[in-house]
Amino acid sequence: NILSVSTTAQSIHIKWEAPLFTNAALVGYKLSWMPSKGPFSQLKYREIPQSDSTATSGVISNLTSDTEYIVQVAAINTFGTGKAAQKTVTTQRRSEGEIHCVVGIM
């Protein structure tokens, strides 16, 4: 589950909840993103290793301001990648580096 999302003009800060049941050893998370109106070829992702039990957040940077993105987070265990949680997020219009909006998700 995605717990919260905050944005700047060029980044998305995302926090998620670790899965209750992983069916195997948790090895990390896959964080994926792409513009909502872009082709699938614009999909980008990175894997976040589970080297720390508190690794349940990430930052996506170098984004375009005032753009809607589809963001997904999925747990990875020794058998593969699980079902992703998804959220649509819009980066801020302004170019300042401060956080302008925080959205809580229940």
Residues in helix, %: under 10%
Give start-end ranges of low-pLDDT stretches: none
Number of helical regions: 0
**For the terminal residues, how far apart are their CA atoms?**
8 Å
Structural class: mainly beta
Give the ordered list of helices and strands.
Answer: EEEEEEEEE
Radius of gyration: 14 Å
Biggest β-sheet description = 5 strands, antiparallel
As a percent range, the share of strand residues is: over 45%
Count of beta strands: 9
Shape: elongated
| Global mean pLDDT | 86
Short account of what is shown:
The chain has 106 residues and is mostly beta strands. The protein is built from no helices and nine strands.
